[in-house]
Amino acid sequence: MRRSTRLSILPALVLLVGACSTAPSRPWWYSSGVTTCGTPAQIRVAGRVHYLGGCAGQFVSPAEKLTIHLGQRLDIHMAEDSAGPSGRLRPIFALPRSSDSSILALIDRATDQATATFEARKTGHVWLLGPFACSSIAQRPGACPVLDITVVT
C-alpha cells in the first residue's frame, strides 16, 4: 500500500516543481539595472536590439541610418514613463510612422501604444517619422526623423 501512495504523489510533485521553475518571459526590449543614459527608443532587427537617440532622451539629427532586407521586420519600442498616481506606463513619445507605407508597412501595434512592428515590403528609401519635435533646426514641424532606412533585396 505504501508504494501506491508514493506513486500517486509523484505526478503532483512533478507538476508543482514544473510550475515553480517556470520564469515569466520578459519583452524583447526589457533591460534590468540602472543606467544614466535614457534613450527614447529601442529597435530590434534580426534579433539584435539597438538603442535610438541620445542619452538626453531626445532623437538626434541627422537620424541614424539602417539597412534592412526585403521581407525583414523591424520592431520599435518607445521609452515609457508612469502616468500619474495610477502608476500605469505610457509612452513618452508617440510611435513613429513610415514615410512610405508601400516600402515599410506597419503590421502590428501593441495595445500599450509603445511598441510596433514594421515590415519591408518593397526596396527603396524610407523614414520613420515621429509626430514630435526633435533636436534639429531643419526639421518639418511634427515630423522628427527617427530612423533613415534603406530596404535592399
Describe the structure concisely.
The chain has one helix at 2-21; strands spanning 41-45, 48-52, 64-69, 73-78, 80-82, 89-91, 97-98, 104-109, 115-120, 124-130, 144-152.
Attribute tags:
Immunoglobulin-like; mainly beta; single chain; 11 strands; 13% helix; 5-stranded antiparallel beta sheet; 4-stranded mixed beta sheet; 153 residues; globular
Q: Please, could you describe this protein's structure?
A:
The chain has a single domain, classed as Immunoglobulin-like (Sandwich), CATH 2.60.40. 13% of the residues lie in helices and 38% in strands. The chain is built from one helix and eleven strands; from the N terminus they run αβββββββββββ. The protein has one helix spanning 2-21, and strands spanning 41-45, 48-52, 64-69, 73-78, 80-82, 89-91, 97-98, 104-109, 115-120, 124-130, 144-152. The strands form three sheets. The chain has a five-stranded antiparallel beta sheet, with no helix packed on it. It has a four-stranded mixed beta sheet with strand order 3-11-10-7, with no helix packed on it. It has a two-stranded antiparallel ribbon with strand order 5-6. Mean pLDDT is 82; it is low at 5-21.
Topology diagram in text:
Blueprint: H1 2-21, E1 41-45, E2 48-52, E3 64-69, E4 73-78, E5 80-82, E6 89-91, E7 97-98, E8 104-109, E9 115-120, E10 124-130, E11 144-152
Parallel strand pairs: 3-11
Antiparallel strand pairs: 1-2, 1-4, 4-9, 5-6, 7-10, 8-9, 10-11
